[in-house]
Amino acid sequence: MDHADPASAFATHRDAVAAETARFVQVLRGADLTAPVPTCPGWTLADLVRHTGSVQRWFAALLRKRVQERPLSREVELRLPEDEDGYADWLADSAAEAASAFESVAPDAPMWAWGADQHARFWVRRMLFETLVHRADAELALGLAPVIDPGLATDGIDEFLVNLPFAAPFAPGVAELRGTGETLRFRCTDTGGDWTVRLRPDGFGLEASAAGADATVRGSAADLLLLAYGRLRLDAPAFEVEGDEDLLARWVTHSKF
């Protein structure tokens, strides 16, 4: 994805939110919403739908208000149907509310955001990967194999790694990701995506990739995205691992949000 053109990236993210939600809704049609979601322990499909739609509606409210500081409340009008048979349509309506909010704000409008990019476009990109990963959760819960566009997956890995250093307020394990210069490299075998993370005494961050990382994981962009979000294990056959496996295990343990 061409991040040199924010307007193009915004349009791609906006359209992908709609497409991913539509796929999610289709998965839900006729499904048993009491089914457990193994990748979200303790949740049913109904819980997953409520969460995803609520996040979309909350982010949409933030965009409409163009919030300039951290909100004190996450309360938003949900209009949840009483009967779970209406949840699929409700999730589709959540995406429609989001689409309306996207039209109301410029991508580069300054806004508070918990991550690296303090602009409206942060929330659209964040909503996309929240929706995409939970669509995959729904499919996995129903025994389906998620198909994720490689380009979107590559963008999703980048979004995850760029914002992860800022996630400590709600993902306290992130504060454990410190070191003395150790490096971890994540390489996509299908798209050329390549990221190197360096652990420092004061935290961690991305730097230019180069040979000689202390630990490297290679896999398809889709599989690496699912690894980042804890939906695939590091020891899955999908990955080729080199170097310090203890370092990688520590990263996987503490990088969840």
UniProtKB/TrEMBL annotation:
Keyword Transport: no
Mycothiol-dependent maleylpyruvate isomerase metal-binding domain location: 16-138
One Gene Ontology term of the molecular function aspect: isomerase activity
Alphabetically ordered keywords of this record: Isomerase
Domain of life where this protein originates: Bacteria
Entries under Gene3D superfamilies matching the protein: dinb family like domain
Ranges of residues in domain MDMPI C-terminal: 152-250
Any Pfam family hit: MDMPI_C
NCBIfam families (UniProt xref): maleylpyruvate isomerase family mycothiol-dependent enzyme
Protein name, as recorded: Maleylpyruvate isomerase family mycothiol-dependent enzyme
Organism: Streptomyces nondiastaticus
